[in-house]
Structures are given as structure tokens and as C-alpha cells.
């Protein structure tokens, strides 16, 4: 299979984790006989420095010519004092809007070998398997006005939380579609309907959509309670659907169920069929340039790409199995090493590549003798 993959490494550890993910994808291409063409684009801080724009037109063009996109992360202290429109994060938000990447799927599944790495008790995290469906192109991150103003004669500030009903409906429908294919078929719709009008409409829409999916159960949960329940009893969740900012915050919290923010992959799905795959973490300036970041979130995002965008289920599974095997062997990056000797970003990826190659060799031998 021939596919074009747009690579947007971005800033900080974004570059490091994308670099090694490309090596893993090359190994997949070699062993499964595919041709992946990689086209690099600038986004975020680097794009500001080189092009004066966090999302240059060339980058949008590269993405639109591709079959799928992999993004690292954007941002860093170098650009923290920039005006809002010249912040790296604006580039990512603008790309999500431009490509209509409205549904961000963030699966939270624990690895058996990492049960001791979570700050939560082992028996609470063992068997956790849920997905957060985060609305990605609306809400507070996109509302206008978003500015400093004078209000009642005083310095003030306004951010706007705006959703069209149709935007709420499509993300909730996506969540129901996902839930209807899962074993437990249960949705927790997270909102703040006790105080926000947007959340009241969110609930109304969720109830309407639920009528079309009688096999799926729906419950509503206030976001403050949901934040607590994720720690108290994470196994209760199957599919969480929520608006942009709540999903952003809850998913970083949920990552600790698996042991590290560096473990959570995501798929940002669009209405057009051109999807983007990205780790949920940021550019981690505190560890950038040290070759110590955990690349697993990005490598697993690439597996999501192979499955979702290219229909390459076996290849996606091979990556997931290789990650599992390497973790089972005890190899961990510093975020998970608990003070023990840690593997570097490159070593971790190298081991995953080797595990992929080994596993595939065994499969080939089995096929030859079957
Ligand atoms: N999707 C994106 O591009 C995102 C960008 N950001 C941006 O990233 C910059 C830094 O933001 P922070 O709040 O520090 O969030 P962050 O997610 O970059 O880092 C939070 C903490 O987690 C650690 N961490 C993150 N990813 C890791 C990995 N793969 N392996 C090991 N440790 C990891 C970091 O070292 C840090 O201590 C900011 O400019 C922010 O706006 C933040 C979140 C998402
Ligand atoms: C630019 C931010 C909204 C990125 C972020 O925190 C995320 O998507 O998780
Ligand atoms: Mg975030």
C-alpha cells in the first residue's frame, strides 16, 4: 500500500517523539511491504520563527495532499510573551479548525506491566478501558470575543463559549457510534449543566441522540464529579463525551491511570476523512532536547493512524503488541522508571522496532509452516 503521511513535529519534545515514530513506521513499511512517503511541515513556534505565522499556508497544503497527518506538539517558553495570535498553540487550533478535526478520541487503556506505575491503587486501574471523545473545534478555545475589555469602568476580560447545536449533535453522535460498537455500550456525557446554558443544551441533545441508539445507555455527570470519579473508580467508564476544554483537562488527568502523560495517544477525526494523529501531551519544555521523553503516546498514535485511516489492522496491532512486549521486558523511559535506570527516547523506540521485527519474523515462520 502507498500512503502519504504529513509530519508536523512542532516544538520541544514534539520533534523527538515524531522522529522516532517515523523510524517505527519505516520498520512497519519494510516488514509489511508498504510505501509510506513522509512530507514535513512547519507548525507552532518554529513556524513563527521561520515564516512569521504559526500555521503557514504551505503546511496546510502539505496536510491536504496527505492521506493522514501526525503531529508532535507545539509551544514553549520562547513564545510565551507573544501576542495571542502569534502563539504556537494558535497554529494547532487553526489547523484543527481548517481541517474540521472535530472529534478527538483519547483511549485510556492500562498496560498490565504498568499497573504499579499509576499513583492509583493497582486494583482500581487493572482493566481500565475507556475512551474520551473530546469535541475539538468549538467551545471556549474558539469563541469570539476573546479579549481584554473595559467593563463597568474597569479593566476586564472576556472569553466566549459558543457551540452551534449541530456541532454538539455531531460529536455526541460520534460518541454513540463508538459506544454502540463497544462491549459495554455505555456513555457518560460530562457537562456543567447546573450552571452553564451550553451544558443544558448539550444534555438536551444527548437525550435526543440517545433515542436513536436504544442499545446504548446514557448517563450525565457534572464535570467536577467526573474529575473525582476518574480517580475514585475509573473502571466505571466506557465512553466519555464532553466539550473541548473539559475533555482537554480530564484526559490529562486520566493519563495518570496508565502511569504517565507520555502514554496517551489520540486521533483527531475530521468530517472530510483526512485525520490527524497526536499524543495528548504538549511540548514539555522541561525535558526537551534531552532525549528522555516517552515516545509511546506518539508511536501508539501512529498505530491509530494505520488502523483508522489506512485500514491496516494487523500493522496497528503489531505496533501495539511491540509496545506491550517492550514494557513487559521492563524497559521504561524516565517518566515511568521510578528512579531505576531509564531508557532514552531513542532506545525505547529502537526496542519497539526490534520487537516489531522479531514478532514479524516469527509470524512469517509460522505462516511458512502452516
Ligand atoms: N497538543 C499540543 O501541542 C499541546 C501543547 N501544549 C503546550 O506545551 C507547552 C508545555 O505545556 P505543559 O503545561 O508543560 O504540558 P506538557 O504536556 O508539555 O507537559 C506536562 C508535564 O508532563 C511531562 N511530559 C509531557 N509529555 C511527556 C512525555 N512524552 N514523556 C515524559 N514526560 C512528559 C512534561 O515533562 C511536564 O512535566 C505549552 O506551551 C503548552 O501550551 C500543551 C498541551 C498540548
Ligand atoms: C493548544 C491546546 C489546546 C492543546 C492541548 O492542550 C490539547 O489539545 O490537549
Ligand atoms: Mg491538553
Automatic annotation (TrEMBL):
EC number of this enzyme: 1.1.1.85
Cellular component terms per the entry's GO annotation: cytosol
Residues holding substrate: 96, 106, 134, 224
Entry keyword set: Amino-acid biosynthesis, Branched-chain amino acid biosynthesis, Cytoplasm, Leucine biosynthesis, Magnesium, Manganese, Metal-binding, NAD, Oxidoreductase
Pfam families documented for this protein: Iso_dh
Pathway: Amino-acid biosynthesis; L-leucine biosynthesis; L-leucine from 3-methyl-2-oxobutanoate: step 3/4
Complex formation: Homodimer.
Family: Belongs to the isocitrate and isopropylmalate dehydrogenases family. LeuB type 1 subfamily.
Protein name: 3-isopropylmalate dehydrogenase
Organism for this UniProt entry: Metabacillus litoralis
Lineage: Bacteria, Bacillati, Bacillota, Bacilli, Bacillales
Gene name for this UniProt entry: leuB
Amino acid at each position: 500500500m502507498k500512503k502519504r503521511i504529513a509530519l508536523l513535529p512542532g516544538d520541544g519534545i514534539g520533534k523527538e517523539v515524531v522522529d522516532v515514530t517515523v523510524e517505527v513506521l519505516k520498520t512497519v513499511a519494510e516488514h509489511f511491504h508498504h510505501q509510506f512517503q513522509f512530507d514535513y511541515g512547519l507548525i507552532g513556534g518554529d513556524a513563527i520563527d521561520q515564516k512569521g505565522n504559526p500555521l503557514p499556508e504551505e503546511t496546510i497544503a502539505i496536510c491536504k495532499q496527505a492521506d493522514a497527518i501526525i503531529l508532535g506538539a507545539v509551544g514553549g517558553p520562547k513564545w510565551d510573551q507573544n501576542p495571542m495570535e502569534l502563539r504556537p498553540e494558535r497554529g494547532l487550533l487553526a489547523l484543527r479548525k481548517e481541517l474540521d478535526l472535530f472529534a478527538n478520541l483519547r483511549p485510556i487503556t492500562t498496560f498490565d506491566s504498568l499497573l504499579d506505575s499509576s499513583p492509583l491503587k493497582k486494583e482500581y486501574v487493572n482493566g481500565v478501558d475507556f475512551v474520551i471523545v473530546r469535541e475539538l473545534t468549538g467551545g471556549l478555545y474558539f469563541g469570539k470575543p476573546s479579549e481584554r475589555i473595559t467593563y463597568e469602568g474597569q479593566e476586564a476580560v472576556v472569553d466566549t463559549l459558543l457551540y452551534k447545536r449541530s456541532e454538539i449533535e455531531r460529536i455526541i453522535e460520534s460518541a454513540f457510534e463508538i459506544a454502540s460498537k463497544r462491549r459495554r455500550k455505555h456513555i457518560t456525557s460530562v457537562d456543567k449543566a447546573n450552571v452553564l446554558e451550553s451544558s443544558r443544551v448539550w444534555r438536551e441533545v444527548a437525550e435526543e441522540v440517545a433515542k436513536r441508539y436504544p442499545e446504548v445507555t446514557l448517563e450525565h455527570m457534572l464535570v467536577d464529579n467526573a474529575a473525582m470519579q476518574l480517580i475514585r473508580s475509573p473502571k466505571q467508564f466506557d465512553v466519555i463525551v464532553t466539550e473541548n476544554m473539559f475533555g482537554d483537562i480530564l484526559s490529562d488527568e486520566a493519563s495518570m491511570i496508565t502511569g504517565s502523560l507520555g502514554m496517551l495517544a489520540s486521533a483527531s477525526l475530521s468530517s472530510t476523512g483526512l485525520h490527524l494523529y497526536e499524543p495528548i501531551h504538549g511540548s514539555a519544555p522541561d525535558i526537551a532536547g534531552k532525549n528522555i521523553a516517552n515516545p509511546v503516546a506518539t508511536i501508539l498514535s501512529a498505530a491509530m493512524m494505520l488502523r483508522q485511516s489506512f485500514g491496516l489492522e494487523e500493522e496497528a496491532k503489531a505496533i501495539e503488541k511491540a509496545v506491550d512486549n517492550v514494557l513487559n521486558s521492563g524497559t521504561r523511559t524516565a517518566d515511568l522508571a521510578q528512579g531505576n535506570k531509564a531508557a532514552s527516547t531513542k532506545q525505547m523506540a529502537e526496542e519497539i522496532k526490534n520487537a516489531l521485527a522479531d514478532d514479524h519474523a516469527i509470524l512469517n515462520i509460522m505462516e511458512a509452516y502452516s
